[in-house]
Design goal:
Layout (H helix, E strand, L loop, with lengths): L1 H24 L2 H29 L7 H23 L2 H19 L17 H30 L6 H37 L7 H21 L6 H24 L9
Helix pairs in contact: 1-2, 1-4, 2-3, 3-4, 3-5, 4-5, 5-6, 5-8, 6-7, 7-8
Length: about 260
């Protein structure tokens, strides 16, 4: 099982490097090789995830290692699906490093399989935590697209204006998806908390930072839809907001222990 996990990291890294060089040199053969490597890495990652789930006898999302692995897997499948629909290299240029970096972070977490705590044995487990992995992946890729937009803008519109608008709009759509899923995370978490701890909300650090993240992206959507903000300002917003997501994902567990400390 560990061989599959580390092989996934290596193949994701190879795909990321091939894609970076292929895009920089405009070599379609390298980009094609990167896509194949990324698909192979995703297949290995999927087999690892399924194997771990079977070994644990549950959905493998119960601790920080498993959640990070799920986060990376979600980013990989999002990247592959978006590329299949859009056929745009910039989608994979962003999603590949997200999958690689998050899975690399997982490698530094304790990997042993543990029994679920009583509070986690709930029908809300899959919905709450599964939604969180895809929400974070959507926000991370949107942030990467924001960075890509700013880099291209810095180069003086190295890409066509239509392509820039596509990048901007795709980041917006991903943030809409991430915001919807984060709303599901917060609502399902409140119901689950009431069942497990007899209170809907406890201002636990993880809950608080999830709410802060939700408010931050609500501001993004308000500015986008009501104030008609687009382009550079929204790209910067998407990039900066990712740091809040990453702190909610990893920083809270390390620096602000609370009821969710079991996720470390």
């Amino acid at each position: 099982m560990e061989i599959l996990f580390f092989a996934s990291i290596v193949v994701y890294f190879a795909a990321t490097m091939l894609q970076a060089v292929g895009v920089a040199l405009r070599k379609e053969k390298l980009c094609r090789a990167a896509r194949i490597a990324f698909a192979v890495g995703f297949a290995l990652h999927t087999i690892f995830t399924a194997w771990r789930g079977i070994a644990a006898g549950r959905l493998p999302l119960a601790n920080q290692f498993e959640f990070a692995s799920g986060f990376a897997w979600s980013a990989a499948i999002m990247g592959l699906v978006l590329y299949a629909r859009l056929k745009q290299e910039w989608v994979l240029t962003v999603s590949m490093p997200v999958a690689f970096l998050v899975l690399s972070y997982a490698a530094f977490q304790p990997m042993e399989i543990k029994e679920l705590m009583p509070a986690l044995r709930s029908t809300w487990f899959a919905l709450h935590i599964g939604s969180a992995t895809f929400s974070y992946a959507a926000f991370a890729i949107a942030g990467g697209l924001g960075a890509h937009y700013l880099i291209q803008l810095k180069k003086g519109h190295a890409e066509s204006e239509i392509r820039m608008k596509q990048t901007d709009y795709m980041a917006y759509r991903l943030i809409c998806l991430g915001f919807l899923l984060l709303t599901v995370v917060i609502l399902s978490g409140a119901i689950w908390a009431e069942q497990a701890w007899s209170r809907w909300w406890s201002w636990d650090p993880k809950e608080t930072w999830a709410l802060i993240t939700w408010i931050l992206y609500a501001i993004y959507l308000h500015q986008r839809m009501r104030m008609k903000w687009q382009g550079r300002r929204m790209a910067w917003f998407a990039v900066i907001a990712v740091f809040c997501v990453l702190f909610t994902f990893a920083g809270v567990n390390k620096l602000l222990p609370g009821l969710h400390s079991y996720a470390v």
